[in-house]
Design a protein that fits this description.
CATH class of the largest domain: Mainly Alpha
Helix content: 40-55%
Radius of gyration: 20 Å
Shape: globular
Number of helices: 14
Strand order of the largest sheet: 1-8-5-4-2-3
Number of domains: 2
Distance between the termini: 37 Å
Strand content: 5-15%
Length: about 375
């Protein structure tokens, strides 16, 4: 196991009816900007619960955050934050809304000329406005980490960044807010959580038994509960288990002391930026191909996943690996998320386009930084 330090300052408030806790958790002098997306919170009861809890507070609203939040949209909100002297952000929605609020929190106090530098150059920010979240779409874990992914629409750049200063002060997780999610969003969320876990687990062995055990439990939970969420969307316990699993998958805990990959996400971001695919869809396409191309490097952990997560036990290691990769792909399909580019109407030219873009960036991906643009092309051609 590697050396590590771990800190997570976010307070989680979990359970039915907990949105009312906003009134006691927010500072009395908070001047709040409520940030949300296309308005689904006004149809599922979340918006009214928030407004009821904010009686006595001064607040404004900013809506229209895209599923892959745009830098340009965020900067519109930053102008409001500065002009109205907002001192607290409330993100109500899924990972995209929360990621956008994190960027707003940093950009509003940024001293430089171009806040895009925070994202593009990974500049260390000195300060950020405090924020909280009301989670309605479990997937990204953004409610309990300092990570954010922002897209600049002008040049189709989708990049991740992070800072300890944009961890939410607190996050409210009410499983009942997820009851009305469309099946595609349920599937995308489960796939996203699954791949967050494998990015920290399907690497190479470091004898980190506790982290591996946590990761395997998250994966087994997703496999058991994900299909149930499609079949019985108002089952509270199913929703609670999925919601907490998504948080635990990316709050830093299972990634402590172990190598991490993130190649599937890096490739997936390029597919989203270029073709507009949902984030979860890109991950479902890329992961099986990445595991196939990197089967020798990752073989021990893939085989372990097969045994401990899917109950696959084969004497022949190659057969074990093959069956495990197939089981992962089949699970994504069971969640309603297609796993090949052609199923989204995308041709094999995507392999050239994405690999060329990564070559332009000079990126080498993976836990060993040995995934070249040519390997990325091979991965995507396997998924045509």
């Amino acid at each position: 196991m590697y050396n590590f330090s771990y800190i997570n300052p976010t307070k989680l408030i979990f359970g039915a009816g907990q949105i009312e806790k906003l009134k006691t958790e927010l500072p009395a002098d908070a001047k709040i900007l409520i940030v949300y997306g296309g308005g689904s919170i006004k149809h599922n009861g979340v918006y009214q619960q928030i407004i009821n809890a904010l009686q006595g507070f001064e607040y404004l609203e900013f809506s229209g955050i895209e599923p892959n939040p745009h830098y340009e949209t965020c900067m519109e909100a930053v102008e409001i934050i500065r002009r109205e002297q907002i001192n607290f952000l409330l993100a109500a929605g899924g990972g995209s809304v929360i990621d956008a609020a994190k960027f707003m929190a940093a950009a509003a106090l940024f001293k430089g000329d171009d806040p895009w530098q925070i994202v593009e150059q990974g500049l260390s920010i000195e300060s950020a406005l405090p924020l909280c979240t009301v989670l309605t779409l479990p997937a990204t874990g953004s409610e309990m980490n300092g990570n954010s992914v922002i897209t600049r629409d002008a040049d189709r750049n989708k990049l991740g960044w992070g800072s300890l200063k944009v961890y939410p002060v607190f996050s409210i997780l009410d499983p009942e807010t997820t009851y009305t999610l469309p099946p595609k969003q349920i599937g995308n969320g489960v796939v996203d959580t699954f791949v967050h876990t494998t990015e920290q687990y399907l690497t190479f062995a470091t004898d980190a038994k506790l982290q591996d055990g946590f990761a395997e439990t998250i994966l087994r939970t997703l496999i058991a509960e994900g299909p149930k969420a499609l079949q019985t969307p108002r089952d509270y316990n199913v929703r609670a288990n999925l919601m907490f699993a998504s948080t635990m998958a990316l709050n830093g805990l299972i990634g402590t002391g172990v190598p991490q990959d993130w190649a599937t996400h890096g490739i997936g971001h390029e597919l989203t930026a270029r073709y507009g695919l949902d984030h979860g869809q890109t991950l479902a396409i890329v992961l099986p191909g990445a595991l196939t191309v990197l089967r020798e490097q990752k073989g021990e952990k893939i085989a372990q996943c097969g045994r401990n997560v899917f109950g696959i036990n084969e004497q022949n290691i190659d057969t074990q690996i093959d069956k495990t990769i197939s089981a992962i792909e089949n699970f994504f399909e069971e969640m309603g998320i297609s796993t090949h580019l052609s199923q989204y109407g995308i041709t094999e030219e995507a392999a050239d386009a994405v690999s060329a873009r990564l070559a332009e960036r000079g990126w080498l991906l993976g836990e060993k930084q040995n995934i070249t643009p040519q390997m990325v092309k091979t991965i995507l051609l396997l998924r045509k």
